[in-house]
Amino acid sequence: MSDQQPPTPDRSGQQWPTPQWYTPHGGTTTTPRPTGEAAPTAPVPQAPFPPNAPSGPAAPPPPSGPYGSAGSPLAPGTPPRASGRRRAAELTAVAVLAAVLSSGGTVAATRLLDDTQSPSSASSSTQLGRGTDSAPVQQASASAPNWTATAGAVSPSVVAITAEVSGGTAQGSGVIIDDSGHVVTNNHVVAGAEKLQVTLDDGRTYSAQVRGTDPSTDLAVITIDKAPSDLTPIAMGDSDALKVGDPVMAVGNPLGLAGTVTTGIVSALNRPVTTQAEQDQQQQNPFNGDFQQQQSSAEPVVTNAIQTSAAINPGNSGGALVDASGRLVGINSSIASLGASSGGQSGSIGIGFAIPVAEVQSIAKQLIDTGKAQHAYLGVTPENGSASDGSATRAGAEVTSVGAGTPAAKAGLQKGDVIVAVDGDPVDSAESLVGYVREQTVGSTVKLTVLRDGKSMEVDATLVARDATTG
To answer: What's the whole-model pTM score?
Structure first.
């Protein structure tokens, strides 16, 4: 959401800032802390965000790399996925914001690689969440959820993360995903951190270590040192079952105010959102907007995100987006602003984005098991394009090249084809296609709806692992 808090100036010899916790009944805030801990400091100032933009319907500017940026609807006759996922009208005149700390190597977010890959798949035995306790809250009314019950069930699973980085400290959020002390968060929350500490809902604070990061999806897993035995893992939900209009709650640590909950609805699904992947040694002044940041050659992170109206602010990065039953449906990762013309960073304007939990679980399992993540690739270079569909014209991801021996080549894709759907979900831009491929697992087979010579056709492609050495 970039909702991560920016570095505060270095305070050598002083204790780290402690997240502030709301009292259950409002009023002033207090800060639970271990015996002997110094008094809490003021909330960490929010970090400035480098602007990027979700794709829009009317000739939006292309992102860096070989991809274009806008698009439109699905070809007629393509059935919607049974899960009910749909795309809403495209967003215009907003900028997606990704919080910056500093940080580890970047993996290309939008390139689909060459034919040197073999169809290997990383298997994982890791089980995430609460197991059979899949719905912590049973709501009596779907139209009027008891948010008090939801907050009570979810808050113990959400933590505040404080990172010591070059020049100061920064804050974000995380979600406990098992009873072994693993916490999933955004990569940009922990990128470049020299030390980490995690504060639980009850105020207990522990040091933590990075287990693995995946800059290309902006996800990371950290491990709590000497984790207590009474951790409460989050209950896992199903992001594929979400529908536009479903009620949701965001839980996190905005502006250093830990344990904050906000509610809203699912505003759109599969929204292509592009943010810049975190780079090493980024430096910013979080107070006067005078950015001194290294130029990044990395291609952006592309996510087919959940858009929500729940208020999300700096510091919410890595926190939970849950349904009314208290099940995790996404990890909050970015927010939108009205643009850079105001000269400063804005807070929530009711447009926030979350990484779907299906993708989160896939990446988190791999990071826990091996410390790194494999990504599926198709083997094409797409750009924003359109093609005739009978007497109509449809936007999609136009194939500009197909790698020899790749899944795309084996599926019969050709230069000039325009892909307009993946597994029945509409593809209206190059970013949308990249987002769909990114969320797939290695070895999965996808059905592509393709326009060629004015006709619609479907082809199946079995995705293989992307080679990190080729980007």
So the answer is: 0.71
